[in-house]
Structures are given as structure tokens and as C-alpha cells.
């Protein structure tokens, strides 16, 4: 019997057989190995990893290609109370604490609970969102803030204000060196506690007040970034409180080469597109629908592959889904976490995701076991 490589097709015409190798339809079909790299739990017991980013430069305590992960929960497993960022170094396989701030940081309305909204600039500054709580639910949710750290993990600035409420989803960033544009979803406006339910659905009330905020930032030489302007480029996304998941709201942000910003909307189970994202002066509402339902299941964090496809983590199961945003076509679903202890398998386990520096693999976190995982060809 003739053995075939993965992806090969055996075509036979009478006694003659030819082998044809089928090219993968997308990125996810090339991911065959999954390796646990490190725990995200810190010495103070923080857990529930959310953000995953790869350092674009070496600066201070960070080496280029280090992986930064933050934690949303404290040792008591209360959501919205995590205060730490850890640094995993692929070259040495070491994990260390990068940054820690007080949970009741006075300049951040409501305190600190670090979310998926994190980025590192080429100038070395790390910016991360906080959507805080004191009891682990949105009943005590504060408006939150954005925290700025230097590359040695020192907290140097806090950004807060009326347009910042529940910085939630992974950031999309345009980094010019001496200036940057940041896109961040805000999912906290108007949320009440999870016990305040809609009498018809018996779920917490669904609101449509979530936004995507564009921040223009300058980076003076040797000084922390300065926030210059803020523009709401999208609004009207679905959001609601949730006891198990803290809240649902727009989470994944990915910027295409044509200045289109793609946004995942978990409650509507959709991905939408915001055109002219870096230049528009008004809101596009929820934008243009790219794709909905199908393989998507509460889409969360998202990235763009080198070939221009979108990879999005499902919150409702342990799958990642690949989407061709130009064609509006869902291509492939791939199990990242098939833990049978949840129903569906992997339900609630995924959140942050990032490309490896070579563009061939992915880093992601498994919230159920508080680990960083590498998906490789």
C-alpha cells in the first residue's frame, strides 16, 4: 500500500496512480502541534490569563520576542481583580513577573482588573486596559482605565475619562515609533450587575452601548506616551453582564492593510468591518457585516495572519476559526482546547491569541488551567 503525506490525494486511473498534494486552504490547517509552555499564575496567586502579546523589541527587562501575559483574576478567583503581567522568554523557557500594581490604584476608577487590551510599542512602553471589580461581578464594576508601564515594569501613567469605560478587547495598533494609534473596545457603559435580568429573556439585559475608541498617542524622547486625542470610530455593539464570564462585549480587533478594522461581536456572534479606521472623524456604528454564526461561537480575541485571514478564538467552545474577510467566508475551525470537562468542550477556556514572530505559529492561553500554549506546524 502506498503511504501518503498529510494533505495528499491519491488519484487512480486503471492501474496507474498519481499523487497530488492539496494545498491547505488557510493558516489553521497547518497547525498540527500544541505544546504547553508555562503557567501564568504569579507568586501572589493571580490567575485567569487574558492578554497575549509578543514583544516587538528588546527594551529594559524585556527581550525581543518575549511573550507578555496578564491576569484578570486574583488568588480568590474573583474576576476584575488581577493586577499582574508575566513575561515568558522562549529562548530560556523562563517565566518571571514583569509588572504588578495595587488592586485599589487610586488613579484608575474602581481599581485594577487587567484585561485583553494590551500592547507593547516599539519605543518599549507597555499599555494595558483595566476593567475592575471588587466582588468579581459587574455589580461593583468600575469604569477602569488604561495603564502605561515602562519596559522595566514600572507604572508611569494612567489614562481615564468619559470615553474610557471597560477597556476590554485586544488592541489593534499602528506604531510609527514617535507616535502611535491604538484601537480599543469599551464594553462597560451602562452595565448593571448580573442579577438584574430582563423579564422576558431571564438573562441580564443586553445593551448596545459598547464602542471602539481610537487613541492618538505621541511618544516624546525618554518620556512616557502622551494621549493626544480620542475618537469613537464605532458604537452600538451588543454587551451584557454575565456571572460566569463577567461581561460579553466586542473583544477582537484586527487592522487590515487597507485601513479596515475588523471587530468581533460575541453576543451577535458576528465579525464586522469598520472602514477608514485610522482617519474617520465619526462613528461607523457597528460597521459592515463580514460573517455571522456558522463556526463562530461567541468570538473573542482575533488576529490577522500574514496572508490576510482572520483567526478568532471562540468563547463557547475550544475552537479557533479562520475567516477570509474579503470574501466574507468562514474557512476552517481548529480545536485549540478540547477539554471534555466543559460543555461544549473547551467552553470558556480561550481568550488571548497572538502570532509567533515567524508568522507560522500561534501563542494562546487556556484559562481553565492558566497556561500559555504554543500552536505550531
Task: Provide structural commentary.
This protein has strands spanning 8-13, 16-21, 33-39, 47-54, 67-73, 84-89, 94-100, 114-120, 126-130, 145-149, 155-159, 172-175, 179-186, 207-218, 226-242, 246-248, 253-255, 261-265, 270-274, 288-292, 299-304, 310-314, 319-324, 329-335, 350-355, 362-366, 371-376. The chain is mainly beta and 377 residues long. The protein has one domain: Neuraminidase (6 Propeller). The strands form seven sheets. A five-stranded antiparallel sheet has the order 12-13-14-15-16, with no helix packed on it. The chain starts with 7 loop residues before the first strand and ends with a strand.
Comma- or semicolon-separated keywords:
5-stranded antiparallel beta sheet, mainly beta, 4-stranded antiparallel beta sheet, 46% strand, disordered N terminus, single chain, 377 residues, 0% helix, Neuraminidase
Could you outline the blueprint of secondary structure elements for this entry?
Blueprint: E1 8-13, E2 16-21, E3 33-39, E4 47-54, E5 67-73, E6 84-89, E7 94-100, E8 114-120, E9 126-130, E10 145-149, E11 155-159, E12 172-175, E13 179-186, E14 207-218, E15 226-242, E16 246-248, E17 253-255, E18 261-265, E19 270-274, E20 288-292, E21 299-304, E22 310-314, E23 319-324, E24 329-335, E25 350-355, E26 362-366, E27 371-376
Antiparallel strand pairs: 1-2, 3-27, 4-5, 5-6, 6-7, 8-9, 9-10, 10-11, 12-13, 13-14, 14-15, 15-16, 17-18, 18-19, 19-20, 21-22, 22-23, 23-24, 25-26, 26-27
